[in-house]
Write a structure and sequence with these properties.
Layout lengths: L2 E4 L7 H12 L4 E4 L4 E6 L3 H11 L8 E3 L3 H7 L5 H10 L4 E6 L6 H4 L4 E5 L4 H10 L3 E2 L14 H8 L5 E4 L10 E4 L6 E4 L5 H8 L3 E2 L29 E6 L2 H17 L4 E5 L9 E4 L4 H18 L3 E5 L7 H12 L3 E3 L1
Parallel strand pairs: 1-8, 2-8, 4-6, 5-9, 10-11, 12-15, 12-16, 13-14, 13-15
Antiparallel strand pairs: 2-3, 3-7, 4-7, 5-6, 9-10
Helix pairs in contact: 1-6
Length: 346
């Protein structure tokens, strides 16, 4: 059985946190909220506990985990070296939705890092997460708390839909703030590379570091066996609803015209159609979801909306895309991965 405890995200119940921390110490699994998505946590330094994460999620073993810490001292326990660039980023963005990839120390098990010599580290900006890490007395490895490949969980209910009976305890801290996983930045290469975009944007990173590049995998230019994945979200299809997802990009009027045209074709085939709109246009589809008028709202609602399309039992989802400036890069990265890179340009 999976125990579920609800607590105030701004003032976590210490009894619940202690109970969850004991499970982590004993090698168990705890799902908990962060500011990005819900994480499925285990002791990052316990190889046996880490294997439980992969089993519960049905996650490929060559997909590394991100390690969550509560203070700078833990970073130095995990990383061989914390370079100047890392110090600057920690000062600016920790705690927050940024993961930095550094060379790891031997204390970090190969199971946690998928046999790579590097480790992704972040400090979540969420009182429940930080309290749990501190009370556990260890760093916590925590991928998103969902079945591998499914839309990431932004509510405790999403966790229970995928992992009930596979995790010891779920801490329900309400809806997450950002809705997309953290930005992952590789600091073991020159210049630094974004491996996964998130709420800490390319533009924000360049303000601190100057030159920052985007890994070709972010936009689907490298896939498959030739890719060395130092970060989650690089190698496999992720975030996917059950229905086929197609993204349409271009000028608003052209996108809307193309969606109407595609809907006619799908109606002939008697398919149930879903539309994810960012413009608020009232499409005559079986199920329409408004993602939001701003990129922040789109990011926060995206995974929840994809799960609602599953509930509506649609066969195909047509999604209006956004431009890739700022947070748009992360939104389009998730949509492209979820669709298997099915993108139509109008």
């Amino acid at each position: 059985m999976t125990e579920v405890y609800k607590t105030d995200p701004l003032k976590p119940d210490r009894v619940i946190i202690r109970k969850a921390a004991e499970i982590i110490k004993e090698g168990g699994l705890v799902a908990f909220p962060t500011e990005t998505v819900y994480g499925l946590g285990a002791d990052a330094l316990n190889a046996e506990a880490i294997r439980k994460i992969f089993k519960a999620k049905r996650r490929p073993l060559n997909n590394p985990l991100i390690v969550h810490v509560a203070d700078n001292e833990h970073i130095r326990k995990l990383a061989r070296k914390v370079p100047r660039e890392a110090e600057e980023l920690i000062e600016r963005f920790f705690p927050g939705p940024l993961t930095i990839v550094l060379r790891k120390k031997p204390i970090v098990p190969d199971e946690t890092t998928a046999d790579l010599p590097t480790v992704g580290i972040r400090m979540p900006d969420h009182k429940i997460a930080l309290s749990l890490i501190e009370e556990s007395g260890t760093s916590i490895a925590a991928p998103s708390a969902n079945t591998a490949g499914r839309p990431s969980p932004t509510r405790a209910q999403h966790v229970l839909e995928d992992l009930y009976g596979k995790v010891d305890l779920v801490i329900d801290g309400g809806e997450t703030k950002f809705g997309l996983e953290s930005t992952v930045l590789d600091l073991t290469v020159k210049p630094p590379q974004i491996l996964r975009p998130g709420a800490v944007t390319l533009e924000m990173l360049r303000e601190v570091l100057g030159t920052v590049r985007i890994h070709p995998a972010v936009q689907g230019k490298i896939r498959g066996k030739e890719l060395t994945a130092k970060s989650p979200g690089m190698r496999y299809r992720h975030y996917a609803p059950r229905a086929d997802l197609i993204i349409i990009i271009g000028k608003d009027e052209d996108v809307q015209r193309k969606i109407e045209e595609m809907m006619q074709n799908f109606n002939v085939k008697r398919l149930r159609i879903g539309v994810a709109t960012t413009t608020g246009r009232e499409y005559q589809a079986n199920h329409v979801e408004f993602l939001g008028e701003s990129k922040k709202k789109i990011a926060k609602s995206l995974f929840d909306v994809l799960r609602r399309f599953d509930e509506a039992d649609v066969d195909v989802i047509l999604a209006e895309g956004v431009d890739e400036r700022g947070l748009g890069l992360a939104i389009m990265n998730r949509l492209k991965k979820a669709s298997g890179y099915k993108v139509i340009k109008t």
